[in-house]
Amino acid sequence: MTRFVVIASGKGGVGKTTTTLNLASALQNFGREAIVLDANITTPNICLHLGTPSLPVTLQDALRGKKHIKDAVYLHPSGLKIIPSSISLEENPDELLENLKHVVPELKDSGEVVLIDAAAGLGSEAVHALRVAHDAIIVSSPDIPSVTDALKTIKRAEKEGTKVLGVVVTKVRNDNLELSITNIETILEKPVIGIIPYDQSIRKSLHLKNPVLYTHPESRASVAYKKLAANLIGQRYVESFIEREGLFNYVLKKLGFRR
Ligand SMILES: Nc1ncnc2c1ncn2[C@@H]1O[C@H](COP(=O)(O)OP(=O)(O)OP(=O)(O)O)[C@@H](O)[C@H]1O
Ligand SMILES: [Mg+2]
Predict the structure, then answer these.
(1) How remote is the CA of residue 171 from the centroid of ligand 1, in Å?
(2) Alpha-carbon gap, residue 95 to 241, rounded angstroms
(3) Could you give the dihedral angle defined by the CA atoms of residues 216, 220, 226 and 232, in that order, rounded to the nearest 10 degrees?
(4) Range of the domain at 102
(5) CB 17 within 8 Å of CB 46
(6) Domain total in the chain
(7) Does residue 259 fall inside a structural domain?
(8) pLDDT of 1-32, one tens digit each?
(9) Residue 42 Cα to ligand 2 middle (Å)
(10) pLDDT the model gives residue 81
């Protein structure tokens, strides 16, 4: 049976949509079937990250009962399967969100996992997404405001009966201005299951409207997302030489100029 896993945060802009897309992409690389669902119906992100803002059938059509949710599944050129939300202005989002609990379970035999990209904050949009999921992955950057909001989201997820699998820390620069991973685990009382470095490749991939795993598969961020996916499926990811040392060093080594 398909697991529904919500990617939530609390604070906005920390990297939920980036994590949803790239975790799905990494899971697919490992042969696992994943679908990405944009549950952010007032300010949808998925189709904007992927350059597909005008798909004919969207989550809203399913929430209105006009279409079956499976009619809103698209195969993106990157290989990702997505269910987009419409970018049109939503007059009555709360009425639509009430139907999420009826519509999402209709995906129950749709592969291994549906990753649900949630809205920021703890308003009704985010809470409905937490409520329909079996599990939650909490995204936070390594600073006090994000971690504080992440704590509130963890508490809310647990109140809704959603299991928190762990925390993905994003935009990590490894300097002494950010919270350490140990401190984050202590504050949140949850394991950190992924550490994603601050990486320009992610900004480039947004510009190219594709997951970073597709545009820059050997970048530090891609490797980190592969490790996160491997962690979730109970495997250990071993980096290739190119991923660890870069193509330039690889070529020098092959030519015998470097050991
Ligand atoms: N590891 C990273 N390194 C550098 N930039 C990043 C990283 N992760 C995300 N970003 C950038 O941060 C911005 C916000 O990312 P994203 O849209 O994924 O966040 P979000 O949590 O989904 O935001 P929102 O709360 O608005 O939905 C984007 O410009 C994205 O490219
Ligand atoms: Mg987003």
Answers:
(1) 8
(2) 52
(3) -150
(4) 3-254
(5) yes
(6) 1
(7) no
(8) 999 999 999 999 999 999 999 999 999 999 99
(9) 11
(10) 98
DSSP 8-state symbol, 54:
T
Distance from residue 37's CA to the centre of ligand 2 (Å): 12
Q: What is the mean pLDDT of residues 125-146?
A: 98
- Report the nearest atom of ligand 1 relative to the CA of 119: 27
Q: Residue 160: phi, psi to the nearest 5? A: -85, 0
- Asked whether 45 lines ligand 1 (CB < 6 A), one says yes
67-71, 178-182, 233-237: least confidently modelled range: 233-237
The answer to whether residue 82 is domain-embedded is yes
CB contact burial 153-175 (16+ within 10 A = b; e otherwise): bbebbeebebebbbbbbbbbeee
- With vertex at residue 139, the alpha carbon angle to CA 136 and CA 145, rounded to the nearest 5 degrees, is 125
Q: Is residue 190 part of a domain?
A: yes
Q: What is the CATH number of the domain that holds 205?
A: 3.40.50.300
Residue 115 lies in a domain: yes
Q: Where are the alpha helices (DSSP H) in 2-143?
A: 16-29, 46-49, 59-63, 93-97, 100-103, 124-132
Give the residue from 215, 219, 217, 214 showing the smallest Cα distance to 196.
Answer: 219
Ligand lying closest to the C-alpha of residue 120: 1
